[in-house]
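3.2 Worked example (two chains)
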Amino acid sequence: MEALIELIDSYEGLSDERITELVSQLDWNFISTVLGFDPREEDPDSGEIELAEFLVCDVGDELLEAAVLIVDDPRINYLVEPEIPSCPRP
C-alpha cells in the first residue's frame, strides 16, 4: 500500500522514473480486486506512466477508500478525501 499511497499523494511532483518504480511495486491483486479488472490487461500497450495516470486520476478515490478498509495507516485516513491532482501532470 505504501507505493499506492505515495503515487496518489505525490503524483504531480514525482519524476517519471519514480512513477515507474512505484507502479512496479503496486499490489496488482488488490487493484484488480477493487476495480474488478486488471488495468494492465485492459490496455496492454500502456506504459507505467499511463497506468499511473489512470490509477491516480480515474480511480484513485476508489482505491484509497478500499485501502482504508484493510490497512490501519493514518496517512490513508488523511487521503480518503484527497485533492486529486490535476490530470495529466503538468
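3.2.1 Second chain
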Amino acid sequence: MHLVKYLTKLSAHPVGSNALDVALEVPVDLVIDHSVQIDVARSANAVQANMELEFQHNKERFGFLKWCSNAFNNMLVVPKGSGIVHHMNLEYIGRVVFNNEGMLNPDSVVGTDSHTTMIDGLGVAGWGVGGIDAEAAMLGQVGEDEFGYMLADILKENNVNNQGIRFDPGARTALAFVTLKSDGEREFMFYRNPSADMLLQEEELDLDIIKKAKIFHYGSISLITEPCKSAHIAAAKAARDAGALLSYDPNLRLPLWPSAESAREGILSIWDFADIIKISEEEITFLTKGEDPYDDNVVRKLFHPNLKLLLVTEGPDGCRYYSKEFHGRVSGVKVDQVDTTGAGDAFVAGILSQLAADISLLQDEGRLRDALKFANACGALTVMGRGAIPALPTRQAVLDALVNIVV
C-alpha cells in the first residue's frame, strides 16, 4: 500500500520536482516474478531470450522502476530473472521489521499474480454443451479441496450436471498451468501423479447418469494409469450398451504419458469403440508415425468399420469430415487469435450439441456441413478471448457470428 500511495503522490506532483519530496514513508521492496508470456521454448537459451523480449515489451515500465530504485534510498527493485518471488522474498529479501530513525515498521507483503483458475479438457466440452443450450453432465473425480469444489461449482453454475463428480479426501485435484506465446499458442505444465482423477474406480461410476446419455464423450488421459483406465473402459461400455453414441477426442498430452509409444498404444487401444472421433492434424502425424495429415488416404487408415464420423480440425482453416458415404472440408472463421486454449473443446461442444438435437445429421451431408460451420464458429469465438472458460460463446453469440461473418 505504501507503494500505491507513493505512485499516487508522484503522479500528482509537478514535473521536474525533486523525487525526495515525495519519498516513500517506509522502505519498499518490489520483486518482479516470472514472466507469463512465453515466446521462446524448448531451447537452451529460452530463459534469456524470453527475459530480453520481456524487457523489450515493457521497456517503459522497467525504465520507470529502474529510475525509482536509483532515485530513492528506501526502494529496492528486484527484476525478473533473479529467482522465484516467493523464495526470494522469504529467504533473502523479507526483513520482518524496518528500523527507520527509531521508528519500527513491520514488513508486509502485497502480491498480485496472473494465474487464473480454469477448467480444461472434458470439463470445457461439458460447459460448452451446457452453454449452447443442450443438457450436459460430467463424470469424474476431483480432490476434496478448494480446486475440486471450485470446478464442481463452476460446472453447476453453467448448466452442467455435476452429480457424477466424486470428491477424494486422500488425493488432490490435478492442475495444469498454461503459458501463452505471443501468437496465442500454448504450452502446458501438469501437476498430477497421483491426483484424484487417476484413482477413480469402476465401482464408483454413476451408471444411472451414463445410461441416460445420448452421446458419451471422452478423451485419452484417463487411460494412462489404473484404476482410472478400467473405470474409463467400463463407463464407455455401459454407455454403448445403453444405446449412446460414443464420441472420442484423444486430446494428446505427451508429458502425461510414460513415453510416446505408450501414448500411441493407449490412444489406439479404444479407437474402435468410438462412433465419432475428433482429431487434430498433429495427432494424425503422431498416430501414423509421421505420415502426411493432409493426405486423405492417410486419414482413411484411421477410419475403423464401425465409425460414423471422423473429424479433423485444422485450427483457423476449419475442419475436414469423413464418413462411409461422403467426405469434405468446411472452411473456418477468420478472427484475431488471442488464446487457443479450449478451441478444440468448443468445437466438440458445438458439433455434439447439434448431433444431440438431431442425430440424423450424420446421414445428410448438407445439414452436417451446417452443423460443422456452427462448430467452427464455436472454436473461432473461443480463441478471441483469454482462458478456456470465459471465452466460450453462447448459442446466440454463435448464431450471430454465422450471420455476420462469411464462412
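3.3 Remarks
Residues 12-83 form one domain.
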